[in-house]
Specification:
By secondary structure, this protein is of the alpha/beta class. The protein folds into 3 domains: 3-144 and 324-337, Rossmann fold (3-Layer(aba) Sandwich); 147-173 and 212-320, no CATH class; 349-434, Antifreeze-like/N-acetylneuraminic acid synthase C-terminal domain (Type Iii Antifreeze Protein Isoform Hplc 12). It is 37% helix and 18% strand. It has helices spanning 3-12, 26-34, 51-60, 65-69, 77-81, 96-108, 118-135, 146-159, 185-189, 193-198, 203-210, 213-226, 245-248, 294-302, 328-337, 380-386, 421-434; strands at residues 17-22, 41-47, 72-74, 88-91, 112-115, 139-141, 163-171, 263-268, 285-290, 313-318, 349-355, 364-366, 373-379, 395-399, 414-415. The strands form 4 sheets. Strands 3-2-1-4-5-6 form a 6-stranded parallel β-sheet, with helices on both faces. A 4-stranded mixed β-sheet has the order 8-7-9-10. Helix 6 (96-108) runs parallel beside helix 7 (118-135) and helix 8 (146-159) runs parallel beside helix 12 (213-226). The longest helix has 18 residues, at 118-135. The chain is globular, with a radius of gyration of 21 Å.
């Protein structure tokens, strides 16, 4: 991509890439930590509901007082994004409603959008990407987060002439994690709760990683960007280490676990009884691909590829991801090359609210990572056909009927306010994809 060569030219010309960060939480802070050493890229504005906390985050990650003084801090994201000294907006709030509104405003203002907010992307990314293309700006996944890194491997495999059989990431999973709440999250993650609180870790946000919601969202994002297919009724989370990717993530008809070829799946770093998986991929991403002919399969063997018993399936993986510290790749690709590091192209996968426990009519749902529901990945066609409730619309809405534990909710099961503009935007996207 030669990003640094182009960035150096911008720096030498006195025209640094100018960025507005919206949301200075953990992901945003990791991005900010790399800004001082990325010569030619400046964060001119930071918008956060707590500007003082955003300033404190900059100090924590190593910014000096001069850089902080030269940066505008505000709680008005819309004004910040519209400023003339901004060309790329990084949306890192994690709130699906805020993310959709911010992205639409940034696109309307002619800014490129790096969508860290996978919640917003899965809720309405197909529509947002369409708006961005019409406006002539880039709408992109965030490099460093697992969907963009997976999309990169998928693109590599296809560019090499391989058929992608499965792609996804790793995580720590056991079935009872679907019932995890912000009270049990640190135990399930294996984190010290005292240290987690001291580090400012948000239990509700991290619980979305544990209860399966975040994995579902990220697999939906990959499916929507790469033209892959979600499982028919939720992720399987098969225990699988890197040496077994090509063996387990192949079609069931050939001895694997998949419904077919061209799917997304998340592998677990734990066996169902809690034993660790050998050479697990908890922090990484992968793609399984198939040799197109006997000669290629022979090359897999000759060059030591990790294959299944047939020798025709192999896998490429990346064992780690650096989250916000890698985000500059997306920012610079958008500003310097006009390219996305992964982009929603279709509405193939959806993530729908599923009851963690028996719920009563009148209860107020508390969204992703909360006490009421977790997000299950399903094909978008099924979600549309059955009128299922997206996890992104399952926050601060009241149930209209009793729901049993494990039941998937429908949009008709909740009272969505008539003036909810994001819900209306989502419904318009649904109609466009149902036509």
């Amino acid at each position: 991509m030669f990003l640094m060569e182009k960035l150096a030219a911008r720096a030498a010309a006195g025209r640094p890439v100018r960025v507005c960060l919206v949301g200075a939480g953990k992901f945003g802070s990791m991005f900010l930590s790399q800004v001082p050493t990325t010569v030619g890229m400046n964060v001119t504005r930071i918008a956060d509901l707590r500007p003082d906390a955003a300033r404190a985050a900059c100090l924590t990650v190593g910014w000096d007082e001069a850089r902080i003084a030269a940066t505008a801090f505000t709680d008005d994201a819309f004004a910040a994004m519209a400023s003339d000294d901004v060309e790329v907006v990084v949306e890192a709030t994690g709130n699906p409603h805020a993310g959709v509104r911010h992205a639409r405003a940034a696109i309307a203002a002619g800014k490129h959008v790096v969508m860290v907010n996978v919640e917003a992307d899965v809720l309405a990314g197909a529509a947002l990407a369409r708006e961005a293309r019409a406006a002539g700006v880039v709408y992109t996944m965030a490099y460093g987060d697992q969907p963009a890194l997976t999309a990169e491997i998928v693109d590599w495999a296809r560019a090499c002439g391989f058929e992608v059989v499965c792609a996804g990431k790793g995580t720590k999973y056991r079935p009872h994690y679907h019932q995890s709440t912000p009270e049990t999250v640190w135990e399930n993650m294996g984190f010290d709760p005292v240290k987690a609180r001291a580090d400012g870790m948000n239990p509700k946000m991290f619980n979305s990683f544990v209860d399966g919601t975040k994995s579902a969202l990220e697999m939906a994002a990959i499916a929507n960007a790469c033209g892959l297919t979600p499982p028919s009724d939720g992720l399987l989370f098969p225990p699988c280490g890197v040496d077994d990717l090509a063996h387990i993530l192949r079609p069931a008809s050939e001895g694997g676990v998949l419904e077919g070829k061209g799917m997304v799946e998340t592998v677990s770093s734990e066996e169902r009884d809690g034993r660790p998986v050998f050479r697990d991929l908890r922090w990484g991403v992968y793609a399984v691909f198939e040799a197109p002919n006997d000669y290629a399969a022979g090359c897999f063997r000759q060059y030591g590829m990790n294959t299944d018993a047939s020798g025709r399936y192999s896998a490429m993986y990346k064992p780690f991801h650096l989250i916000g510290m890698e985000l500059g790749v997306s920012v610079l690709a958008a500003a310097l090359l006009g390219q996305a590091t992964g982009e929603t192209r279709a509405f193939a996968g959806d993530v729908v609210a599923t009851a963690k426990r028996d719920l009563k009519a009148g209860e107020m749902l508390d969204g992703e990572g909360g006490y009421c529901v977790w997000g299950k990945l399903v094909p978008a066609a099924r979600s549309l056909r059955e009128g299922l409730l997206p996890i992104g619309l399952a926050d601060r809405v009241a149930l209209t009927r009793d729901v049993k534990a494990g039941e998937t909710l429908r949009q008709s099961d909740v009272a969505i306010p008539a003036d909810d503009e994001v819900a209306a935007y989502r419904r318009a996207m649904e109609r466009a994809n149902a036509a």
